[in-house]
Amino acid sequence: MKLGRLKPIDDRKVIERVLGGDTEAFNLLVRQWEKPIYSFIVRMIGDRDEAMDLCQDAFMKAYRELGTLKDLDRFSSWLYRIAHNACFSKLRKDQGKTFVELEPDSHGSRTPIESRLAVEKALQHLPEDQREVVVLKVFQSLKFEEIAAIQDAPVSTVKSRLYMGFEKLRSILS
Amino acid sequence: MTHITDKIADFVFQELSARDLSDFKEHVGACSTCRKQVEEFQRTLSMLKASPEIEPPRSICFEFEKPRTPSWLWRWMAPMAASAAVALAVVSFAPRQVQIVERVVDRPVTQQPAAQPIDYQRIVNDVRAAEQAWLENELKTRDASQSKDVLRLRGELQALDFYQRSLQRETWENARDVQLLAAKTDPGK
Question: pTM, whole model, 2 decimals?
Answer without folding.
Answer: 0.59
